[in-house]
């Protein structure tokens, strides 16, 4: 597959991601591509780590939020933004909004990590908490947008958000070239699917024979099951996972067609796999990675993908974790 | 002061550091310059963090070891290298030696962190442990070098090592320019003084009106006292510090003249300051920083330097820490 054969019905193209990259470049951290001899030894291949936990606001979400908010008109900026988020999108939107002097209202689940709720409030955002099991966060957001005139900044089903997240994929390909290595595979965590969809569009366009995989936590493996059945499947209500950032009900409307067309699969891991990966990132990479952000490394260390003799790039997508959860992982 | 006025009796010049940079560039991580709005708020200025804990082998020491070992002749490579180190230099030398297929013997204190001893052994080095209070590590190293013909790779008192460490300073100045910020000050931890001396030569040559400070732990503040008295002062035997990486007896022979001529001062912190800084690096930067590596941030957060309205670049120099020590800091 080359660029020309990418289905043109997608919500965005490589060109959109490249434009996003030009737009946000001076605001983001070009996170390095890190490698650890110890991790390489563990999997028998080369592991190239893209640490988006070092991104501003501690997650890749800053890229999409930045791309979206930079395109607001002066009138829209004055009216403000509203976002619903399990946490990292909240931190990203509130961080960008603060620096652009835009009023922000963030709708977050009441069981989100304190680090994410407190951080969003510290950024000056108005935080509204909802019950993850009972309330409809999209409806709450729509009501506020209707009432205040604020622009809704969705977490993934938005071409500008997806394009911003896709800049991670451009950088991975660029940095693999700088390192003189061809990535046989790229793995990125999937919740609503904006990150992995954006990354897939960029990577498949720039490096067509690189396989792109999603990573998901057990219980929230809607993408793996949707890819298997060929249609969007929902998660069973009431599932639990340590991965607070990766808990959606069903695949995104804009993201699923992309992921269905471009992904080589979705790798599913359990909480123990995730804790071991968090500890490995601490020990071998000196990175603080939150549960959801550790899923791609968890998949590798749990043997969900055979990378012996191959090179694989992993997005470690965020690092906003409550200390008790983190210490539990280090003791694992 | 500009380049031309740097005393020419130093063991190395900016040109040596630039040559080192060209030599090691393809082997090192060009660590990013990170910034956190929360840290900026805490100190009332801009804090630009150079996370050398993300360097290969987890510390800046990789730069100097790489610069030194790349210059060995084939005969020297065959005879091997011997290094004495409190840990990070051991990891760095053994990592470089492994990749260049050079036999390495490392002499380490018996109370070094397990992470550092085990890591050096995992790299294939022969590790010899000594008693930090009783034995003379330099004498042990000299005896081995004499007997085996191995080349001694000292941790700081060597122009090539100092030049390698100084590449951190070149990158800080380059990256501050990329960020559009002029650094009013740079702080780097000091043990033997190779890092801060190399950084000072680079920074004072490239950005003459930037003040360069050392950071030291209480009890091992030989540089602060030496700068005050005007001559090399020794630490009192038996002192204790959480900063395992920063425990020397007296300033280096080659490093002290540089530090005496170029530094604006040395900032001294205690163990509680260090633990708070390790936690702040975890929380606000998602970086795992070891005690010695956290000293510059500890100095800022403890108010040892007033940076209100100013920009200061900090080298967080390493991230190799035992988990019990790390968890204790996160609980602080």
TrEMBL record, chains A, B:
Which part of the chain is the Tryptophan synthase beta chain-like PALP domain? Answer: 25-318
Q: Membrane-crossing residues?
A: none
Q: Which domain of life is it from?
A: Bacteria
Organism in which the protein naturally occurs: Cupriavidus numazuensis
Coiled-coil region(s) at which residues? none
Question: What's the protein called, per UniProt?
Answer: L-threo-3-hydroxyaspartate ammonia-lyase
**EC class of the enzyme, as a word:** lyase
Q: Which UniProt keywords apply?
A: Lyase, Pyridoxal phosphate
**Entry's Gene Ontology molecular function annotations:** threo-3-hydroxyaspartate ammonia-lyase activity
Q: Which cofactor does it need?
A: pyridoxal 5'-phosphate
Tell me which EC number(s) this protein carries. Answer: 4.3.1.16
């Amino acid at each position: 597959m080359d660029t020309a054969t990418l289905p043109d019905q997608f919500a965005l193209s490589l060109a959109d991601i490249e434009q996003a990259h030009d737009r946000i470049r001076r605001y983001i951290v070009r996170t390095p591509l890190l490698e650890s001899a110890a991790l390489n030894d563990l999997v028998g291949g080369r592991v190239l780590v893209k640490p988006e936990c070092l991104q501003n606001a501690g997650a890749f979400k800053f890229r999409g939020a930045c791309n979206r908010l930079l395109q607001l008109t002066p009138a829209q900026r004055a009216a403000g933004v509203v976002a619903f988020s399990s946490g990292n999108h909240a931190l990203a939107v509130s961080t960008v909004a603060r620096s652009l002097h835009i009023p922000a209202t963030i709708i977050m689940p009441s069981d989100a990590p304190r680090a994410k709720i407190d951080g969003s409030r510290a950024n000056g955002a108005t935080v509204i908490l909802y019950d993850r099991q009972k309330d409809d966060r999209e409806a709450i957001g729509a009501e506020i947008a209707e009432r205040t005139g604020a622009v809704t900044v969705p977490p993934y089903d938005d071409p500008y958000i997806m394009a911003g997240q896709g800049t991670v994929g451009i950088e991975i390909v660029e940095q693999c070239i700088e390192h003189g290595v061809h990535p046989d595979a790229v793995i990125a965590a999937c919740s609503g699917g904006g990150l992995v969809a954006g990354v897939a569009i960029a990577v498949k366009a720039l490096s067509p024979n690189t396989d792109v995989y999603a990573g998901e936590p057990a219980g929230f493996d809607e993408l793996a099951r949707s890819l298997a059945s060929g249609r969007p499947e929902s998660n069973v209500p009431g599932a639990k996972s340590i991965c607070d950032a990766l808990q959606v009900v069903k695949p995104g409307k804009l993201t699923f067609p992309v992921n269905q067309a471009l992904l080589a699969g979705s790798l599913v891991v359990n909480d123990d796999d995730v804790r071991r990966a968090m500890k490995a990132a601490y020990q071998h990479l000196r990175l603080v990675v939150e549960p959801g952000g550790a899923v791609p490394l968890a998949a590798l260390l749990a043997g969900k993908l055979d990378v012996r003799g191959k090179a694989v790039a992993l997005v470690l997508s965020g690092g906003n974790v409550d200390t008790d959860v983190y210490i539990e992982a280090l003791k694992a």
